[in-house]
Amino acid sequence: MGVMIMSAGFLLSFEGSEGCGKSTQIRLLRERLEKTGRKVEVLREPGGTEIGESIRHLLQHAKEGHAMTSETELLLFAASRAQIVREKIRPLVESGAWVILDRFLDSTTVYQGYSRGLPMDAVNAINQFATGGTLPQLTVLLDLDVQKAWQRIHATGRELDRMESQPTEFFEKVRQGYLSLAQAEPQRFRVVDASQSPEVVHEQIWSLLPA
Ligand code: TMP
């Protein structure tokens, strides 16, 4: 039997509340990884597939979204994830790509579990079903004080979407939820202080990656 040699792919997720600088950091990391000749794919949650983008629209912008129950919200995020895991993530990692996930299952644990208060055993079981056990090798949590995050969001001057229109206490729970998760799974999570300059944050993230 022949031995198949394949360059190893890598699965990395970014997590953090709105305004933590996730998009900027993902862009900086993608550019630097590409310069080293790696194949890089950034996937956005919810979305990243045609089915997922329709679900994203329903969750964030559609008029009917305002009547959505928390249970429905959880299942829609999970549905989008079930699709992207099988349609994109697994094949890409198997082909040797570096896959950067802009949010993954931890967003559900934190937003629908900790913040919306849905039962954690249900959230965990649904996450497990949706991912089929596919977990990132590394999860970078960009941690930022809620007030600072709001200042950043308001500085952009754009209109807030459905999730961003939640009260401040919701985002306090988001932050604390993420920090508890990171503590519970220290082998997978790395917490980076997102109040630092984008360049410093980027260097810290870079130093966390396998050579
Ligand atoms: P983003 O474009 O800022 O990442 O927006 C995605 C929004 O959806 C954000 O408010 C977090 C929320 N979200 C959840 O509530 N649960 C999830 O599972 C995911 C992936 C996102």
Distinct ligand kinds = thymidine-5'-phosphate
Largest sheet: 5 strands, parallel
Find the count of extended strands (DSSP E, 2+ residues): 5
Give the overall shape: globular
- Please indicate the percent range of residues in DSSP E strands (runs of 2 or more): 5-15%
Domain count: the total is 1
**Name of the CATH homologous superfamily:** P-loop containing nucleotide triphosphate hydrolases
Supply Rg: 17 Å
Lateral arrangement of strands in the main beta sheet: 2-3-1-4-5
Structural class: alpha/beta
Kindly report the CATH topology.
Rossmann fold
What number is the mean pLDDT?
Answer: 92
At a glance:
By secondary structure, the protein is an alpha/beta fold. The chain is built from 8 helices and 5 strands. Helix content is 53%, strand content 13%.
Explained architecture:
This protein has a five-stranded parallel beta sheet with strand order 2-3-1-4-5, with helices on both faces. The protein has one domain (11-208): 3-Layer(aba) Sandwich (Rossmann fold), CATH 3.40.50. The relative contact order is 0.19. The chain has helices spanning 22-35, 50-60, 70-94, 105-115, 120-131, 146-156, 168-184, 198-208; strands spanning 10-15, 40-44, 98-102, 138-143, 189-193. The protein is globular, with a radius of gyration of 17 Å. The chain has eight helices and five strands; from the N terminus they run βαβααβααβααβα. The model has no long low-confidence stretch (mean pLDDT 92). The chain binds thymidine-5'-phosphate. Thymidine-5'-phosphate (TMP) is lined by residues 18, 45-46, 77, 103, 107-108, 111-112, 163. Residues 18, 45-46, 77, 103, 107-108, 111-112, 163 line the site of thymidine-5'-phosphate (TMP).
